[in-house]
Amino acid sequence: MTLRFRTAPLRRLRRMAVAIPLAVLGLALPAHAQSPIIQGWLAANTLCKGGPPDDQKTQQACAKRDELNARLKRRGCEYQADGDWWKCRR
């Protein structure tokens, strides 16, 4: 019986020795970067919304945004209007 009580703290210590580095490793992993197509859409959307409607650069930015919008939808991404972001299947 005394043997069982002595091994319990060792097992707990071994579990903690494995769990703590795994938790730290999980926190240290980088976040997923946005894809270049989403970055392009965000840049074009900013120019499209922020420019004067009759400006040629604004119209080009809106056309580029619409093109990227169609490409993202073909890839299975959905636009989330409430936060102005894209949700894509991985």
Kindly report how far apart the N and C termini lie: 52 Å
Choose one word for the global shape. Answer: rod-shaped
Query: What is the CA-based Rg, rounded?
Result: 25 Å
* Strand arrangement across the biggest beta sheet: 1-2
Structure description:
With 90 residues, the protein is mainly alpha-helical. It has 2 domains: 1-30; 36-87, no CATH class. The chain has 3 helices and 2 strands, in the order H-H-H-E-E. The chain has helices at residues 2-28, 36-50, 56-74; strands at residues 78-80, 85-87. The chain has a two-stranded antiparallel ribbon. The longest helix has 27 residues, at 2-28. It starts with a helix and ends with a strand. The model has no long low-confidence stretch (mean pLDDT 80).
Give me a quick take on this structure.
By secondary structure, this protein is mainly α.
Give the tags.
rod-shaped, mainly alpha, two-stranded antiparallel ribbon, 68% helix, 90 residues
Give the SSE map.
Blueprint: H1 2-28, H2 36-50, H3 56-74, E1 78-80, E2 85-87
Helix pairs in contact: 2-3
